[in-house]
Amino acid sequence: MSRHASRRRLTLVSLAGVGALSAAGLSLLPSLASAAPCPDVEVVFARGTGEAPGLGITGTPLVKDIKSALPGKNVSSYAVDYAANFSQTSAGPGATDMTDRVVSTAANCAGTSFVLGGYSQGGSVTDIALGIPTRLGTGRTIPAKLAGRVKAVVVFGNPLRLSGRTIASAGDVFGPKAKEFCNTGDPVCGNGRNGAAHLTYHVNGSVEQGARFAVERIGRG
């Protein structure tokens, strides 16, 4: 092979190598672009019975209000993935999903703090995740080593009250961090007979109060 042909071959090999490296680099771009930065705060919320998947009628405004009150922080949200079925048998699996989300996010984001909460059956999801026994099943609970990173707990219409208990009375770890709302007459949490009372937390100021409580707790560090 001539010296000229040899140089030409080396040039082609080099260019092919560069092309391969460039292609590999480009293949990484989508994953890099999709990797969101770690939030300062993540709100993990469980919707109520029968609501469509998502944060629900109370979780959606709660997240919005927390974000608005913390303009200097990156606030994300996660809607607990569970059935929210009318048979009330999905709270345990919901608690497991809530716990798994906190554990995985905490492992990947050392500086992220959490606000946990739920509405109606979502309140039971939260109870179980916090390690509070209920009649609606069992699931994985928040590890003790992560308890300090849960800055606030906000629940609406929590069935736990029907047993004469609250998150505040159930333990010293999460009790001081909890804000609980139960409207007068709400049959789900207060043994009342006014079904409409269970549907007004997002319009009667409860959500705003819950958000202010969470923001205050976050501010304490």
CATH topology type of the largest domain: Rossmann fold
Distance between the termini: 72 Å
Element-by-element helix/strand order:
HEHEHEHEHEH
Q: What is the total domain count?
A: 2
Helix content: 40-55%
Fraction of residues in β-strands: 5-15%
**What is the C-level CATH assignment of the largest domain?**
Alpha Beta
- Class based on secondary structure composition and strand pairing: alpha/beta
What are the low-pLDDT stretches, counting only 5+ consecutive residues below 50?
1-34
The CATH architecture of the largest domain would be: 3-Layer(aba) Sandwich
Number of helices: 6
Radius of gyration: 24 Å
Tell me about the biggest sheet? 5 strands, parallel
What oligomeric state do these chains adopt? single chain
Instruction: Please report the total strand number as a whole number.
Output: 5
Overall shape: globular
Please name the fourth-level CATH homologous superfamily of the largest domain: Alpha/Beta hydrolase fold, catalytic domain
Mean pLDDT: 87
Strand order of the biggest β-sheet? 2-1-3-4-5
